[in-house]
Amino acid sequence: MEIADFSQPVRQSSKGIIIIFGFKTFRFFKKFFVLFIAFGLSLTKKKSFLNLTPTTILLIIIGVLVIILVIAILKYLNFKFHLSKDDFHLATGILNKDNTIIPKSKIQNVYIKQNFLQQLINVVSLNIETAGDNKSEIEISALDKVTALQLKEELFNKSHTDNGKVDAIEEKNVFFQVSPKRLILEGISQNHLKSFAIIASFTFGLYYEFKEYLKEFRLRERIESVVDLNNESLFNIIVINLIVVVFGLLFSLLFSVIKTLVANFNLEVIENQKTIEINKGLFNKVSLSLTPSRIQNLVVKTNRIKQYFGLHTLSVKQAMVNVKQRKNFTIVALDKQQVDYLASKLLEGYAGAVNRCKPHSYYKRILGLHMFIPAIIFNVLAFFIFGKDMWWINLIVIPLSVLYVYFGYKKAYYKIDDAFVTIGSGVIDTTINILETHKIQAIKLKQTIFQKRRGITSVIISTASKAVTIPYIKEKEAKSIYDFLLFKVESSQKDWM
Amino acid sequence: MKFTNSQLFNDELPKIGDVILKPISKQFIKVIALNKLLLYSIIFLVLFLAKWFIPNDGIQQNFWYLFTILLVFSILNFGSALLAFSKRKYAIRTLDIIYAKGLLVNSITTVPISRIQHVEVSRSWLARRFHLATLNIYTAGESGSDLSIKGLPNEVAREINDFISAKVNGNS
User: Which residues of chain A make contact with B110, given a CB cutoff of 8 A?
Assistant: First the structure.
């Protein structure tokens, strides 16, 4: 294996020009997407657009592409990085020169990604993230895989010695590899309402963008001519609505399954001595390693259907900036033992065998209130739209509310021991939040004026990645938890990262 | 009770209930009042301008309803803001900072000093007239865990700022 030297400023692989060019072009076309559509449409009609002939427009596009190419080359030439003993240095910028220095000890994450274009020309991108604000993320978009792995190794190596090479050879144990069957099951048991919402918003978004053009196609008239809107054909309307709903549901299901498959294709969890590595993705391959000391929260999620199939999702929350990357830090389709094993690996000494405490029954009231307001709105709407006859919707709404309160309260619990706080919650989902006491950033007691009379309060525990709530417990208990956790944080010598 | 560790530490642990919280500067109530009054006057100004310059039937007919609703809302809002003032309290312990606030929703937040990333003192124009300052305390990550103590006397804010800065820098 050729050992790359990072001590001198180096550029990324020259293929980086293609990557930068590709990204820029893609972004450019995405930005002016609507304009292009408009242009295409008007071309079909008038043979010109804003008094420009097709040839001029073609020339303009070629000109723009050339400019982008020049920018890409300049960017590539001005992008240099190197490693010193404790820091990572990066120099960028064509006109405005930026010099970024990141101390190795402050690096939160290093992950390797490979999108479709990068897969084609066989390079990977390496992202370095710190816990700071948005600007602190660095992406080196074209490195060959060996170099990237080596750089990653050295970034995690605190002192610049050659021990990294030894570590790299340490036994790699593939702990978990997802089977396609489990992935499909995972996709089927997703929350389809979410997919439906995504599809719906996407469709509406498109519709609004192209409202003008759609008008020209007289879509509305056509639909109305198909759907014969006679008074007698009420039955027809119901049937059509039903078909639309069924199609919507099927479509959402398909969407969920495909989304899960694409995002988690070949999901692989590799167990190293200290860290855990996740590899996954079809078009966007991601490889990331989890270091226990960087993890702020662990969230285990499942629901009724998933429980039946034995599917659990483990999300790892770190102090991260990039919201888009956050969802990559999840491992889907794990069974119970695997979740327990990973949890005990990532949180050293996590047993979870402490007795669980329940929130005060006041919580039921709050849950009831959560349902009461939508129920009222539902009723009022139904009354105004359909008249008095719609009272029967309460036959659905009331049992739903009762179920909501029942499950919401049943699934809520908390456990606190010396090193960990575990909080269970969820209504449809079953969610378990785990955090280490020494990673707490702040603690808050919160009570409304009504709860004060009953001596009930909530405890909100913030870590660097997430705030979790122990809802509605006795004030005395809440205060002793508060004191205890503060004592734990302030007396421990461990840092939060 | 059910909380297993409480027995062991209960007596020895410093209790949040025992901390004597200090009220913020009395002067700050003036800042709150002036800010609120400014806000209300802008709202009412807009309302009256709408009445005089927009000859829309909807506005003209419902003007007094709107006016009453806004007036009631403003009075309630003002009253609760003044009442909530006495709930704004803070305390500095050796290892942490405590801030309590809120009348309808009361909260008490503690940030351990070892978790503070940085502190800053900021002063608005109005606060400067009354020699007041705001102490902002930032922790890592989630903005939910940041603290902002408003209406401290300027010298006190500086003092706390220096105290925390020294501690934070000493730790790292």
Answer: 442-444, 482, 486
